[in-house]
Amino acid sequence: MAHVADSEPDSAQAHLTQAIIDAMPEHIAILAPDGTILAVNAAWRAFARQNGDPNSLHTDIGVNYFAICEAATAPEGIEAISALQGMRAVLQGDLERFEMEYPCHSPDRERWFVLQVTPLRNGDAETISGLLVRHVEITERVLSARAAWQARRSSAIDSVARLSLSPAPTTSELFGTTRLSETAPELFANLASEYRHLIDQAVEQRIFGEEKRSSERLRHFAAKLGALHIGPRDVIELHVHTMRGLISDEHSLRAEACAEEGRLAVLELMGYLVAFYRTYALGILRSPPAPFSKDY
């Protein structure tokens, strides 16, 4: 009888704890030190049902959350391993708390969340007895930030685009007044595709410290443009066309990296193109650059 009496406060406390976490809109789980899920809230279960676990077989009480992270495959695997490392760091006392933003897109819309992990401590406040894991949706914030960034970037691109509206008289005399995009749209599209590929490569190679290779490719591309008798205005149009496509196609982080590489690339490309035409002007090249061909 005494056992029943003693268990009643514990049961009441458990119901109160469950009611509290169920009232929270975030997806919440309480983990044991070994990663076993001890409790989840209503929002956690609802999200699981709507996203591939309708019977709560893989995401509910008794399941090992650490094992789920370890078993995750690409593309989610990278985020899952980072989350696992962060949770273990909190358990070991290396971190006071851990946060990580990550994408979790559904078939019909983009979504982002932030994972927040805090330790649960015993009464002595020294021993960590588990983890409180929260997944908070931040999609609206991410989309707003992306829209603001795209607006700023579009404004910068528009400023560059205005440079091609009224070419200098000397430029018009050397390269004509017609636009490559109008007279040879297929060639323009091919060159824009090649330029975008160069920027994509530059982003990848910067990660591995191979900027020299990017510069060499830009030098060859500038020589090709020079041989096609393409002037500064058309280079600006190529750049603007490519960058507008990049900021609309790429996710914000990669788009930002591409935008920075594009800014550097167009300056470098202009420098190489000037050097190419200067070489011709000094008579080092035996014949003038050939005019562009639609069959290029």
TrEMBL record:
Residue ranges occupied by any PAS fold-4 domain in the UniProt entry: 22-142
Pfam family, one: PAS_4
InterPro entries found in the cross-reference section: PAS-like_dom_sf, PAS_4
Gene3D superfamilies named among the record's database cross-references: PAS domain
Name assigned to this protein: PAS fold-4 domain-containing protein
Organism in which the protein naturally occurs: Candidatus Thermofonsia Clade 1 bacterium
